[in-house]
Amino acid sequence: MTNNKPTVVMIGLGYIGLPTAALIAGKGLQVIGVDVSKEVVNTINKGEIHIVEPDLDGLVHHVVKKGRLKAATKPVEADVYLIAVPTPFKENYQPDLRYVKSAITSIIPFLKTGALVIIESTSPVGTTEKMQEIILQQRPELKGKFFMAYCPERVLPGNIIYELEHNDRAIGGINEQSTQKAISFYKHFVKGELHATNARTAEMCKLVENASRDGQIAFANELSMICDKAGINVWELITLANKHPRVNILQPGTGVGGHCIAVDPWFIVSEFPEESKLMRSAREINNYKTQWVIEKIKNKALAFEIENKHKPIVACMGLAFKPNIDDLRESPAVTVVETLEKEDLELLKVEPNLQNGRAEGLTDFNDAIKKADIIVYLVAHKEFYLLKTDKVILDFCGIIKS
Ligand code: SAJ
User: Is 38 tagged catalytic?
Assistant: First the structure.
């Protein structure tokens, strides 16, 4: 401990690990951030960042300069270990715990009596208990002498720093002492309420939060396809339905992207296939919506070609996985563009949030509107709302609305 504050090792310096490490360091705790990538480690040790997130660069620069945050490729001895590494799924939708296991294995030699190990990575139910077993297999003398808990993050990309500090958190230990120890730790940097539970409930809590949002978006996406067939404006319909005091339909779009909502429900579905029919359907509907969008664009392009005797230029407006960010991970808009690129169509790709060397092959949105025959709105970026055109428009994200 330094200044009566615990020393911290954060394993994984990605979208969650780096902001969390920087926030903790900003509260005066000594943090070592560990990442397998030397490039990431070098970037951070220069006080710079490798991801785009508002306010993160200033904070990292500050805590690195003060010597509170240091990055390294290997862990060291500490009071608290936090694990924020990715948990992707394998081809059969089974969760891939490779990175969590390797993070746990890397800290085992450094664990001392009284250490606290917290997993934040999205994990299938029972993971924290399994990881405890792995630790005890190698260090049986630690039985009953270290603490372990699961505490999922729930921050929204684009607003991570604020939400890390202000969101409530569910904290579930492998026993009551572990839960209390983890709660005391999070009090150093979280202003939101800290809710005590057990590890399995905390694990499931993270999964159902994202599965619930996936289900709500699937409802909106299904509705958009029904309305298209019925000749009803889905945006007007949703606005009207949401005037009901207990109805809150979300917005349809090109599909569901990002690293969480399109992934986490599978962790429930793969483990409880008999029981999770609605969650599976929601995943399938949201994936199908992207294919439906592709078919709509292809049909419109064909109709244009028949009418005008030449192939259209199609402007694909937006590539990110959601509005006003530059993150392309699992983006349905990217799937649309990559599929259309194989179709012998002339495409203009527009993404106003990608700049400075990341904009190769992209067209400015004003130029695209002038050059294209068909404008396809895939992501509702703020820049698009002001554009005026009399060209053919396919709007999959509610830019036009009437
Ligand atoms: N989307 C729609 N319609 C909507 C809302 C979203 O189509 O009405 C789409 C977005 O365009 C995007 C996808 O859903 O493609 C996901 O976007 P999002 O903003 O709903 O969520 P993420 O993936 O950025 O972050 C989610 C959040 N979870 C919930 O809101 C339950 C966040 O709090 C989690 O921390 C994060 O997943 C995560 O890391 O798990």
Answer: no
